[in-house]
Specification:
Layout: E1 6-9, E2 12-15, H1 21-41, H2 49-63, H3 66-69, H4 74-88, H5 99-106, H6 111-127, H7 162-165, H8 168-177, H9 181-184, H10 189-216, H11 230-251, H12 273-282, H13 286-289, H14 291-305, H15 338-352, H16 355-371, H17 384-398, H18 401-414, H19 417-422, H20 436-447
Antiparallel strand pairs: 1-2
Helix pairs in contact: 1-2, 1-4, 2-4, 6-8, 6-10, 12-14, 12-15, 15-16, 15-17, 16-17, 17-18, 17-20
Bound molecules: zinc ion (ZN).
Amino acid sequence: MEQVTAEKDLGVFIDTELKFRQQAAAAVSKASRILSTIQRSFQLFDKSTLPLLFKTLVRPHLEYGNIVWGPFNRTDQKRVERIQRRATKKVPELRHLPYTERLQALKMPSLYYRRRRGDMIAVYQMLHGGIDLESHDFFDRSTARETRGHSWRLVKPRAVTRVRRNAFSVRVINDWNGLPSEVVDASTLNQFKNRLDTHWANLLFELFAVLVAPVCRLTSPSVPAQVLPQERMFALCDAIVQSGREYSLRQRSPVPLMYAYYDTEYLGAAHGISAILQMLMSVPDYLLTRPDVSRDVKTTLDFLTSLQQANGNYPCAMDELGGRRPEPEELIHWCHGAPGVVYMLAKAYLVFKEEKYLHACLKCGDITWQKGLLRKGPGICHGVAGSGYVFLLLYRLTGDQRHLHRAQQFASAIFTEQFQRHSRQPDCPYSLFEGLAGTVCFLADLMQPEKASFPFFDIFS
Ligand SMILES: [Zn+2]
């Protein structure tokens, strides 16, 4: 009898070590071939054709049998995701945007998200009898009378090896037990899916609100300034630092702290490390009581500061160092680039009092002024008000009237007919970050510039 290292069963290559590398390679290669064929057959892709073609013709090959084979290996995860990265670049108007923003514009989730979501759907169906599998063959229902959590909690089995930790019945437990009752108690599968998506989307915001709002004391006057007691704030920061250290070690990063979002090490304020460092510096007394953290923050900070390009801008992510993005495609917004990193630099200047940070801040201001008005609408994330806030920050930092004048110029441009005719309507026209709500904050702040601050980003308090 012939000895083999992998065997195909129901279309999935199962190998002797249960690592599924061969299966991942086969799925990637098939999906890649189909993507190339589609590309040859169509002249142009837009925001509606591309998702349709990708979801029906390519994605199924990457997702078939995912519950069994993952992928769990980081390299394989990246290779699988890369197919979708490549596909989303086919829409010409989105090509220059980072992956997360391309996905947002196309209303497509990442494949990583889809796998986690698929796992949750499978657990829901097993427990609610939606599929013909006995749930007790896979899980034990928790009988512990705990006050926390929902009534469908599962017991987490011991798992020593990586293969075991990646097995369906183990890897789903934390995610599942972490869901709120209203999600797991959903009465239909569709209701469950909708509630799950909403819950996970809100989680990101909650994390932001829990950390940022107390730090910045930018809560409404009815909420006391100290939202979380100091030890809870410190514990939260410790967790953030530990996760950054572990990731940095694993990835052999050049700095002691590093983070990734959707597999990309972003630097900017919306998804990246600059806002994380800024928050760590903003928690009163945190760095003073943690000399080792203070050292790591400072080292990382100095490295990031040094990444400023000759024109004053900052790259979007670590994989774009060395000017890999051509100048016309450079992003100079609050979410990516100098207009967001400037808040970290300004905070660093206030905390460590070194001139180099102030110098870098001023260069951020100059590039924002030179690049002029963004055509992506009036908002604060990637619009004119977001750029205008840079000047209000510099005005507060230096007292120099020149910056205030620049902010006023940007504000008055918003009201010109030319801007209103040529700028783009944001997806969420009234929202805080993209739409009018943020613009109103900017305009209101112009009336009292000595108290101005980008929403949730007050570095002076
Ligand atoms: Zn943005």
